[in-house]
Design brief:
two-stranded antiparallel sheet; 277 residues; six-stranded mixed sheet; alpha/beta
Length: 277
Amino acid sequence: MTTQEIWGYWVQKGFDKELNSSGKTPWASLGAQLYTSEKSKKYFDVVEARPKYFVLKKYSNEAATEQLLEEQPVDEKEHLLEKELHPVLVSYLKNFWSVNAKTVNHLKSTRSKTGEWMHPDIVGAHFAFEEFDKEVVDLYTNTAKACVKFYSFELKRKLDFSNIRESFFQAVSNSSWANEGYLAASNILDAVEFKAELKRLSSLHGIGIIEIDPQNPNNCSVLYPAQVKEDLDWLTINKLTAELKNKDFKDFIIGVQDCIERKKVFNSCFDKIIDFE
């Protein structure tokens, strides 16, 4: 088992209080003790794999260790590429949020030191005229408000203590332009301490958290909702379109404008919805 798996087992059995660790990564403290404790070496060997496994002595011969590693269940989430999560999230947003989304490729931007953290992975728009009567839409528009709500999404393959702060910094930086900003990942560490920190940072920065199920978009879920901002950051919108000249983002803005003017959603302006069945 890895140190995180051992810690998860300890928590289930109620042994976690015996570690006497107040750190944010108690499994790391546990691993350090197992590495350095002479007593533990009587019972465990360490398998030099990625990640490292602690193995009972009776399984520590080479043949048994290789067989043990082969029998370890493969976590498909660990091997997914970030780009493979895009169609899953796009489908979820369309089917459950009525949000039309588009992938933004940062490589299509002009190179700029100031634009490093400004590119959202996916942008989205929800058009109220899809659910309002025409008369209500006209009235809404005549009160100087567009019937559209903007979303920004930062995608990660996994979220754990090793990347949580950097991921939030990215999400905060590239979602300032939108009404709602989200951090989405397919492999979120399932530990009480981590979930508490995730909730704290979400509340502090107003960034929502989405857990992606790569096998079934219908099973994606919002762990923590985003804080809604009424005003858009037009300086950032202009920077993405005019200064960084990102074609994907500019096409998104043009497409949204076309949909608003014609009061009709054109699927060609957004990412294709994949039939996962």
